[in-house]
Input
Amino acid sequence: MQISKRVHSIKPSPTLAIDAKAKALKQQGVDIINFGVGEPDFDTPINIKEAAISAINSGFTKYCPVAGTPELKNAIINKLKRDNNLTYSPEEIIVSCGAKHSIYNIFQSIIDDGDEVIIPAPFWVSYTDMVILAGGKPVIIQTNDKVDFKATSEEIEKALTSKTKAIIVNSPSNPTGTTYTANELKAITKVCVKNKILIISDDIYEKLTYDNFKFTSIAEVCPEVKELTIVVNGVSKAYSMTGWRIGYAAGPKNIISAMAKVQSQSTSNASSISIKASVEALNGTQDYLEHMKQEFEKRRNYIVQGLNNIKGITCRKPEGAFYVFPNIKSLLGKAFKKRIINTDIEFADYLLDVAKIAVVPGSAFGAEGYIRLSYATSIENIKRGIDRLMTILKD
Ligand code: PMP
Ligand code: GLU
Output
């Protein structure tokens, strides 16, 4: 049977593929240091687990409303008010099976064939393929470490065409950790409001900003922008709940209801047990967030310094998320252990084969000449990883 052209035109998620490879090697007994994985290494907090167990024991194990239970919608509404000063009604909220699913549903709901979505690069691997699957065209704005991986309002304005439907803003960013200030966001909103471009604000790393950097969601910037923005968030990163698969979107009623229609014909509701756990995550104590942040901040400082001590690598210190995105361009074209490394993909392969370190090549994120390391792993692992890197890049 012939596979559809649409599916032919996309690739499997490279981040998930590298993580799977690293985990498989580990299971075979190989001493892999996994910087590939994009998930917190902390356990899900106990109060959240208990809420899930109690959901099971009380029989909360049946279908529920497609767009999420009123209880979880209320918890999300309260969270958006409390943390972001944004006001939404229940019809403006939808709960899906992870933020990835929320973004997928958005594209399925807003894109007609040939519609364009502006995506600043480096971008999270799934944005472009999800746009393509919906029949749209990703329009990439290339940025680099010299400009802190930030797209400007001028660049956005230049990328607009009559087909532009939306732009994705992901701050803090996967893969760079770059975080836009409120003023930078304000400048972007001016272009979007003037040209009536929908903003998809992927706020999944909201809780992970360092050095007292204050997170701002682009939807908060002004009232006109809120009407043009869909905020995407979830519990995966903030509460170490990647496997529970709960994400949500908040935005204009007509788009949310279109997303619910798509979801009603695909997954139906997200898992009822995870829904109960997420109510507890959002309504319960937020105390552990500070601990997690402090731990990530320590690791970030350590890894950035370690990488910058390696000749040929330069690494910007990111304000958020748990990724670093060092520039390795000056190592390319050189031979290491008699192996010539020409691209970031070959570099990542070399690290895995020789040093047993898993990283994701920058080209997976639309940025050649970089690699992504996730520091959602212990300081000991980071130290061992940096030592190994130093050793294999010596000759
Ligand atoms: N957006 C970004 C930028 C991410 O890094 C991730 C994590 N892969 C997601 C969305 C999706 O997260 P989840 O589906 O686990 O909620
Ligand atoms: N956000 C993670 C990453 O980028 C999870 C993997 C994925 O969904 O792509 O590694």
